[in-house]
Amino acid sequence: MSTGPSKNHDTVGSLLASIATYLSDSLRALRFADKRHWGPDEFEQIRALEDALDDAKTDFQELGRLVNGQFYYEGDRTPESLNELRALLIKYEFHARNFKDWIRQGGPINPTWLSETKELQLELHRTQCRASRRIFAAEQEGTWTRCLGAYQVYRQQRRNEEAERTRKQKEEEKREKNTREGGGKQSDLESILPWQRHEHQEQQQQQNGKGPAEDALRPALRRGRRLSLEDLVPCCNAVGRFERFGEHDVAFVCDFCDGFIVWPDLQRMPSTRAGLNQRNEGSASMAASIPRLTTTAKNSPRKLILPTIVTASYPAAIPPSSVTTSTTTQEAQTETTTENTYPHWQAQGVSAKTGEAKTVVFAPIAIANHIAPVPGDWLARIWCPYCDEYTYVDQGEDSEDEVKWAQDERGFEDLTSFQEHLEWYHTALPVPSIPALLPKAAGDCLVM
Predict the structure, then answer these.
(1) Residues 251-277 pLDDT 10s
(2) What is the torsion angle, in degrees rounded to the nearest 10, for the CA atoms of residue 186, residue 189, residue 194 and residue 200?
(3) What is the C-alpha to C-alpha distance for residues 169 and 174, in angstroms, rounded to an integer?
(4) Core vs surface per residue 111-122: b (16+ CB within 10 A) or e
(5) Which of 150, 284, 314, 317 is the most exposed place for a label (fewest CB within 10 A)?
(6) Is residue 439 left, alpha or beta, with left meaning phi > 0 and alpha meaning psi from -120 to 50?
(7) pTM
(8) Residue environment code for 185-194, b if the CB has 16+ CB neighbours within 10 A, otherwise e
């Protein structure tokens, strides 16, 4: 039995090339076979082999870019990666021999080979992901950092944020330009005859791409174009998979580190974050049960005191009637201000045991910040992105330079502890209005 080149000279690139050779040989044998008595199973088998070969080539090209170029990925000799690829190479050799024997013997094709092809395709994809993750981890040796799969989602999130800042900056510049040119346009409008002004205004609106019907829909269109965490859902599905974990839990399994992120007691994974009203209702209920106090963090400097609850003044107890009468522009401004100012990590899920609504961590936030499990463990640890961006001024120093907050480099051990941290330190709670805090005036007051 031949399994490619000698083991002493094996690399990731050479073993992948041998696997691609077996796939190409299987395709070549099926394409030149007699197809007069073929049915749908035989043609479906050809398409499955083509998809497997295309995916293998795509992974080989894309994963090489993530680890400083194709040369490092192709010439990698990490023992764990080579052992996995050698075992997979033997499976592909037996799989290719099945097709050669079937062509010589004839008859209908075995329908189970189709499922085997798809299983081997998925296994090859995960093996390549793990191989690239080991190269990435070797470059970060000695430090706790995000998994390569989490790094891809995190990088896409940063790109979306940069694109969103650029879009807002352009809108602000356009708004200022229109404000400056407003006086000149008004003087030009006065020089036009009164019965021609309406036609002139319509022409200007058509040139600017702004019709009368679009004015009312502009806030909604702006919200639709805004890039947010919801845009990361396809990227999360590309680096791993969601699956049912037990009877009541949902888990995400990363293809790069095989780490599990478990959402306990969840019927279905939400694909969008909770709306503003849902966030405020959950925050208000939590505010009634959590005391307002300050706590010294475990790994904080000696004189640094962090507030346990971050309060916000955005509207939480607005009556439904006033909500319906508010304008669309005000709603858009409120949502934009709240999303850009306070951490928005909440998603609305449904309990698998009771069927009641519950607040969970939005999946892209946990996936974009997970750390590969320690050896012997299967749960991925999670890094807090909000603590990573937090800076403070040390009270014991004369300088006013901001110091970056140093959180535990190992992250949180599971999603439950991470959510508890978010609820205590990164949840914006509504502040009651001032009239509600003042005592009511007595009816028999002599002064009044």
Answers:
(1) 999 999 999 999 999 988 888 888 766
(2) -130
(3) 9
(4) eebbeebeebbe
(5) 317
(6) beta
(7) 0.69
(8) eeeeeeeeee
